[in-house]
Amino acid sequence: MSQTTHTPLQRIADVLFGTSFRHGVHPPDSKALTHTVPIRRMPFPDEIVLPVRQNAGKPAKLIVEAGDHVERGDTIGVADGYVSVPIHATATGTVRAVDWWPHPDGKMERAVRIEVDRFSPQMPRPRIVPEWEGLTPDEVRSAVQAAGVVGLGGAAFPTHVKLNPPEDTPIELLLVNGAECEPYLTSDHRVMVEYPERVHFGIRIMMQCLGVDRAVIGVEKNKPDAIERLRATVPDDLDVEVIGLTVKYPQGAEKMLIKAVTGREVPSGKLPMHVGAVVQNVGSIAAIAEVFETGYPLIERIVTVTGPGIRKPQNLIVPVGTKVRDVIDFCGGLKPDATEVIFGGPMMGMPQPDLDVPVLKGTSGVVVLTEAESARPPAMPCIHCGRCLEACPVFLNPQTLGQLAQVGRYEEMEEHHLNDCMLCGSCSYVCPSNIPLSQMFALSKGGLRRQKERARREAEEREEEQAA
Amino acid sequence: MSDAHGGSGPERPTGPWRGTGWQEAAGVPGPEDPQLRLMASPHLHAQDSTARIMWSVVITLVPVIAAATFFFGAGALLIIGAATLGALLTERVFGPGGAIRDGSAAITGILLGLTLPPGFPLWMAFTGGAFGIGFGKLIFGGLGQNIFNPALLGRAFLQAAFPTAITTWPAVRTATEGSSWLQLRGDLFAPPLMTAGEADVVTQATPLGLWKFEGEVTDVLNLLVGTTGGSLGETSAILILLGGAYLAARNYLNWRIPVGIFATVGVLSWILHAVDPSYPGPLFMLFSGGLVLGAVYMATDMVTSPVTHRGAWIFAFGIGVLVVLIRVWGGLPEGVMYAILFMNALVPFIERATQPKVFGTAESPAEKMRAS
Description:
The complex is a heterodimer of chains A (468) and B (372).
Chain A: H1 8-17, E1 40-41, E2 47-51, E3 61-62, E4 69-70, E5 75-78, E6 87-88, E7 93-102, E8 108-116, H2 137-146, H3 159-162, E9 173-178, H4 187-194, H5 196-210, E10 214-220, H6 224-232, E11 239-245, H7 254-262, E12 277-281, H8 282-294, E13 300-306, E14 314-319, H9 324-330, E15 338-343, E16 350-351, E17 365-370, H10 371-374, H11 387-391, H12 398-406, H13 410-415, H14 426-430, H15 437-467
Parallel strand pairs in A: 1-14, 9-10, 9-12, 10-11, 13-17
Antiparallel strand pairs in A: 2-8, 3-5, 4-7, 5-6, 7-8, 13-14, 15-16, 15-17
Chain B: H1 21-25, H2 50-72, H3 75-94, H4 104-114, H5 122-136, H6 150-161, H7 207-214, H8 220-225, H9 237-249, H10 256-275, H11 282-287, H12 291-298, H13 309-329, H14 336-353, H15 365-371
């Protein structure tokens, strides 16, 4: 794929031949580095670092302390509330300390540091594999929660919550997200090629749990082998359709995927379930299947280590909590011209300043870029070219929003639907003047929150004064 | 603090981070560790840049300049050069540092030069370029801030200041017997602020002037190729359309604007012609005067045209209507300049009224604002 901008011809082709949403951008997909490289297992590192916060929602509550011996698969932190999942030891060893440690999101977080026992066979304790067929939806959900399964696409939202839609919102469709629209990443691609049966098994469990009859797997057309393997392995008794999607970013965003497959728009501020769909990333589905196949909790994940700045790009099974330094070392190390190490894809991923941060459940890739990709000429004035409007998948006006952001008029930005922005970065990607639009919107969202918080506090204080 | 995150663990240190386990356990950065950068996502960027867009526009203007030079002799180059020099110097002296490199001042100068008649005194062209950049752009805050197209504002200034010089149309070279390419038409080197000397010029009425004042309609083929009197860049419609098509294919200009203008002018003049055949037909209206240059290069100036697609259609429609109104019923033979400048002024209102409908909502923010 050589197309780098969204030209009129490209748009016409999208409309005529594509299954997609409108707008969006076409970054070079750069997946050729790893898309044919089979998944392989990385050896256990000397130390594992497991932060308590690895999922959206509440962090886990620790139940171990320094000096405890843990086996691979042991629970070391329990779910703290409903929107929370437990964490598990991902290797056998001894808890060295419970300590502050850098988290991939840039903050410090309390983490369990496990010194890995080199002479352990690293087998989990034998456990009873739950027999999925007899389970009620509630039992499935609690098994999924107990296994610590979260969305592996990046947001790390606890999966059991998604499996529990409210009574009054009927779900008709399970939508499996195999778009993998972020450039460079190939972990979902390899899962679909190598473990299609596992994907279908996960779909079976989810369909049973949700009580839906129909599932659709959406895969971007730049993965023809994945589409073919999935189609060839659909079980006879399951209504699963595999749909090839236009290669376009952000095709894998939930709302865009639903629009592409069903033509429905998720209302502003609502969730996919409000249009009768549950979206689950294909990697998470495979993780669910693994829980019911083997009884393992989610203690390892598939990570694409790639980019022009790494010596041996590949798709690895990495124990959760492995420091990225160890992952990079296993892949031959960084090239001298590496400039950025990014967790996730290059469009929405977090750059890491510190190679000691651990790979977490939500880390779909480690992308190492060089000067050629990360060089940014200074920002220039906006010339009203309108490319950002043509790029925005949710039809915002990033040009106006950007002007408002520069002068801090957050409430006006809210009227212009700031909160519908999902920070996909398409506007920044196309801006010829290099204006960091999505960064400005991320900051404005925070500013808006603070402004509202302050207004609420002041109103409360006034009320108290009046009462007194 | 200990239980704010739930569970047991160390207290959050209040002092510097030194001495926590991470600092002791972390690997010392070795010679192999490169300097890693922290940048906001997205970490990739499309190839296009503002400077590339602007310079592409300049490059597509080169054939137009060449045609003007072919038809009007070496003087055309001098006039365009003088206008460009005026624009660039003003940008360099009064504009922000390095702003010349973005190419927008060069476009202003070249486009202004292309709207001038072939015998225009150079100092006037220079003044027009300087005025266009100074009062058309820098006074608003530079690139991206101006309301009016700077080139057209420069021309409007020249039209007001030098009404005679700007309406004297020397004939094209191919229409005059035995005139050499190097021969200058008109008093190009008139000293500044002096009355232009008596120059021995063969003049030729512009097609629109011919029609307006003498009722004569020029052949469309001549209009397309450019063998007619008029401003430097008004003559070669085909080259301008080709340049525009290239820019539109690269997404460097909004094709809706020229298409909308052509459609509006074409349909309106076709209706007029059908009602009363004394009005010129659509082809003449489309290819005479500055309509092609204005529609392709002036109205599409990104800064002064709407960013929304619906807005672009409205903007184009407005220009088309005004052009026909001025040409047919106004006192001037040509109205493209005023039509575009007038619609430039309306762009903020057009944009406000045509905000896109946000994904997953029933109405656009503009409609919501009107409703509340």
